[in-house]
Amino acid sequence: MVIMKDDTIKKVKNKKIVFFAISCLLLLAMLFGISRMHFYQPVKITVEVKTNTADTYQLFYDTGRDFNEAESVRINVLPADDYQSVVFVLPPVALRHFRIDPGSISKLIEMKKITLETRQQSLAWTPKEILTEFTSFYDFAQMTIVDNRLRLEITGNDPQFVYAQNIDEKINLTDEGSKKRYFIFTILLFFLGIVVIWFWEILPIPPILSILSFINRNKYRILFIFSLMFFLASISIGWNSTLLDYYGFRQTQTAITVSYLLKGGPWLAYETPVLGPPWSIPFEFPLYQWIVASAVKVGGFPIDQSGRFVSVLFFILAIYPIFKILKALKLTTNNILLILSLICFSPQYIFWSRTFMIESTALALSLYYLWIVFLYFENRDSSQKKWHILAGVALFGALAGMVKITTYFTFIFGALLLFLLQLYRQIKEGTDDKKKLVLVEIKFIFFAFVIPTAATLLWISFADSQKSLNPLADFLTSASLKTWNFGTLADRLSMTTWSLFYQRTITDLIGENKLLFIVGYCGLFCNSKYLKIALVSLLLFLIPLCTFTNLHFVHSYYVYGNGIFLIVALGVIIANFVDSDISFKRATGYVLLMIMIICSIAHYYTNFWPAQGATSCYAEIKKDVDAYTSDKDILLIFGADWSSEMPYYLERRTAMVRGVMRDTPKYSNLKKNLSDYRIGALIFCGKEKNAKPEVNTFLRDFNFNHYLPKSYADCDAYYYQEY
Question: Which of 336, 377, 385, 600 would staple 345 via disulfide (CB 3.0–4.6 Å)?
Answer without folding.
Answer: 600
